[in-house]
């Protein structure tokens, strides 16, 4: 990496504005997965142990520039204190006189969690005034928020133009692992794209077609392709205005000699839930009033064979509604194939990682990235603004 990291600077006695990605899933105010907090611990510990005054800044959810009580950073701050076994203070603002007073009261090695940066409208607009307010708090900026590195926001890029800016250990590790895999990808190189964020993910496919040998489609994404090919998809997930695009990808794949794999069968359901009527049908026979909620067993077999022959696999997005056991087999089958293969396996995206956890296969994957969108954009070959803004070596 040609960017400076916290290894390259002296932090003793310095106030360090550290951007982390504490955007963790919450249910009724309780953190259901603290992976991202644990992933930031090496940087936080390093800074504290080396005598920095550590400010931690993060977004949580998408509060759209307003204070949303449930999205305060209190729960992540509390979890961090538990994980560190050390006092962690939290303030209810992210800049200004009150925050400055708290900083003045800190001693070297103390940790202070700031409020959700997305409570301020300037954050996502990358407002230079807000960036200056953040910068005014600190001597150094550390970006360890790989999961938000594809966002050009005030706390990820704006501040980096104001004070010395370096990468944290998590940022460094993610870039190193993903960079190594993509530099000279081992082949066959396979990408598996699924999930429900059809709009977000469909654009990624175009760039991936320039890189991969096999592109596997699953999850809700598959049915826009099926519909575009003229198949009946019933009530399955559809992004109607993306059908032309889907067809153009199929054409591009053919021109490039990329093996584009789509489901050959599906588990369809009459309703949504564990106990609704369901059956396996060929992809050409989805009943007009049923919904496809998982890939079928023949598809799992087909995909597993391709995975077994691959040397590098990136996986983003589950193959079906894996949260319900009735529709989990497709995702489980693909995860198992990945676990069994010798391929270097990279998983990105909260739900895919959660699926690997659910099936107890997470520790058999080569790398589980803390960033879904960020890892996809990196693999596409895009420059991540949060990285670009850091100081060069
Ligand atoms: N066939 C399908 N129809 C509807 N939803 C689906 C289907 N397949 C997968 N999903 C849903 O997609 C969600 C995950 O999508 P997404 O957020 O895009 O993935 P990730 O977080 O891994 O990037 C899961 O909650 C899952 O239930
Ligand atoms: O959860 C995140 O993204 P991801 O679901 O793509 O991994 C990051 O925290 C970025 O959040 P954002 O997509 O609201 O900017």
UniProtKB/TrEMBL annotation:
<dbReference type="GO" id="GO:0005524">
    <property type="term" value="F:ATP binding"/>
</dbReference>
<feature type="binding site">
    <location>
        <position position="36"/>
    </location>
    <ligand>
        <name>(2R)-3-phosphoglycerate</name>
    </ligand>
</feature>
<dbReference type="GO" id="GO:0006094">
    <property type="term" value="P:gluconeogenesis"/>
</dbReference>
<keyword id="KW-0547">Nucleotide-binding</keyword>
<dbReference type="GO" id="GO:0006096">
    <property type="term" value="P:glycolytic process"/>
</dbReference>
<dbReference type="Pfam" id="PF00162">
    <property type="entry name" value="PGK"/>
</dbReference>
<feature type="binding site">
    <location>
        <position position="36"/>
    </location>
    <ligand>
        <name>substrate</name>
    </ligand>
</feature>
<feature type="binding site">
    <location>
        <begin position="59"/>
        <end position="62"/>
    </location>
    <ligand>
        <name>substrate</name>
    </ligand>
</feature>
<feature type="binding site">
    <location>
        <position position="323"/>
    </location>
    <ligand>
        <name>ATP</name>
    </ligand>
</feature>
<comment type="pathway">
    <text>Carbohydrate degradation; glycolysis; pyruvate from D-glyceraldehyde 3-phosphate: step 2/5.</text>
</comment>
<feature type="binding site">
    <location>
        <position position="118"/>
    </location>
    <ligand>
        <name>substrate</name>
    </ligand>
</feature>
<feature type="binding site">
    <location>
        <position position="201"/>
    </location>
    <ligand>
        <name>ATP</name>
    </ligand>
</feature>
<dbReference type="GO" id="GO:0004618">
    <property type="term" value="F:phosphoglycerate kinase activity"/>
</dbReference>
<keyword id="KW-0963">Cytoplasm</keyword>
<feature type="binding site">
    <location>
        <position position="118"/>
    </location>
    <ligand>
        <name>(2R)-3-phosphoglycerate</name>
    </ligand>
</feature>
<protein>
    <recommendedName>
        <fullName>Phosphoglycerate kinase</fullName>
        <ecNumber>2.7.2.3</ecNumber>
    </recommendedName>
</protein>
<feature type="binding site">
    <location>
        <begin position="349"/>
        <end position="352"/>
    </location>
    <ligand>
        <name>ATP</name>
    </ligand>
</feature>
<keyword id="KW-0418">Kinase</keyword>
<feature type="binding site">
    <location>
        <begin position="21"/>
        <end position="23"/>
    </location>
    <ligand>
        <name>substrate</name>
    </ligand>
</feature>
<dbReference type="GO" id="GO:0005829">
    <property type="term" value="C:cytosol"/>
</dbReference>
<dbReference type="GO" id="GO:0043531">
    <property type="term" value="F:ADP binding"/>
</dbReference>
<keyword id="KW-0067">ATP-binding</keyword>
<keyword id="KW-0808">Transferase</keyword>
<dbReference type="InterPro" id="IPR001576">
    <property type="entry name" value="Phosphoglycerate_kinase"/>
</dbReference>
<comment type="subunit">
    <text>Monomer.</text>
</comment>
<dbReference type="InterPro" id="IPR015824">
    <property type="entry name" value="Phosphoglycerate_kinase_N"/>
</dbReference>
<dbReference type="InterPro" id="IPR036043">
    <property type="entry name" value="Phosphoglycerate_kinase_sf"/>
</dbReference>
<keyword id="KW-0324">Glycolysis</keyword>
<comment type="similarity">
    <text>Belongs to the phosphoglycerate kinase family.</text>
</comment>
<feature type="binding site">
    <location>
        <position position="151"/>
    </location>
    <ligand>
        <name>substrate</name>
    </ligand>
</feature>
<feature type="binding site">
    <location>
        <position position="151"/>
    </location>
    <ligand>
        <name>(2R)-3-phosphoglycerate</name>
    </ligand>
</feature>
């Amino acid at each position: 990496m040609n960017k400076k990291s916290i290894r390259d600077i002296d932090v003793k006695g310095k106030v360090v504005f550290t951007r982390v990605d504490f955007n963790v899933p919450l249910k009724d105010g309780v953190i259901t997965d603290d992976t991202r907090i644990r992933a930031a611990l090496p940087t936080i510990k390093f800074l504290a142990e080396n005598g920095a005054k550590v400010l931690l800044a993060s977004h949580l959810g998408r509060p759209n520039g307003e204070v949303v009580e449930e999205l305060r950073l209190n729960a992540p701050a509390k979890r961090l204190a538990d994980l560190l076994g050390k006092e962690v203070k939290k303030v209810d603002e992210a800049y200004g006189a009150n925050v400055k007073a708290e900083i003045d009261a800190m001693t070297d090695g103390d940790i202070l969690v700031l409020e959700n940066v997305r409570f301020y409208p300037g954050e996502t607009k990358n407002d230079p005034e807000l960036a200056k307010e953040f910068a005014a708090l600190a001597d150094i900026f550390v970006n360890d928020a790989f999961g938000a590195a594809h966002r050009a926001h005030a706390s990820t890029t704006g501040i980096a133009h104001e004070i010395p800016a370096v990468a944290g250990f998590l940022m460094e590790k993610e870039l190193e692992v993903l960079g190594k895999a993509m530099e000279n990808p081992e082949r066959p190189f396979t990408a598996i794209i699924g999930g429900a964020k059809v709009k977000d993910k469909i654009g990624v496919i175009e760039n991936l077609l320039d890189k991969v040998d096999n592109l596997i489609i699953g999850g809700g994404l598959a049915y826009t392709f099926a519909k575009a090919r003229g198949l009946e998809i019933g009530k399955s997930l559809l992004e109607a205005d993306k059908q032309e695009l889907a067809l153009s990808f199929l054409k591009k794949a053919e021109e490039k000699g990329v093996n584009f794999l789509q489901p050959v069968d599906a588990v369809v359901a009459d309703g949504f839930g564990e106990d609704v009527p369901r059956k396996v049908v060929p992809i050409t026979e989805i009943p007009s009033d049923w919904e496809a909620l998982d890939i079928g067993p023949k598809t799992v077999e087909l995909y597993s064979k391709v995975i077994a022959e691959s040397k590098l696999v990136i996986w983003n997005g589950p193959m079906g509604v894996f949260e319900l056991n009735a529709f989990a087999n497709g995702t489980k089958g693909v995860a198992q194939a990945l676990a069994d293969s010798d391929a270097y396996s990279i998983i990105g995206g909260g739900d895919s990682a959660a699926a690997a956890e659910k099936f107890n296969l997470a520790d058999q994957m080569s790398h589980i990235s803390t960033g879904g969108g960020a890892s996809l954009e990196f693999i596409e070959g895009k420059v991540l603004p949060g990285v670009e803004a850091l100081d060069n070596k």
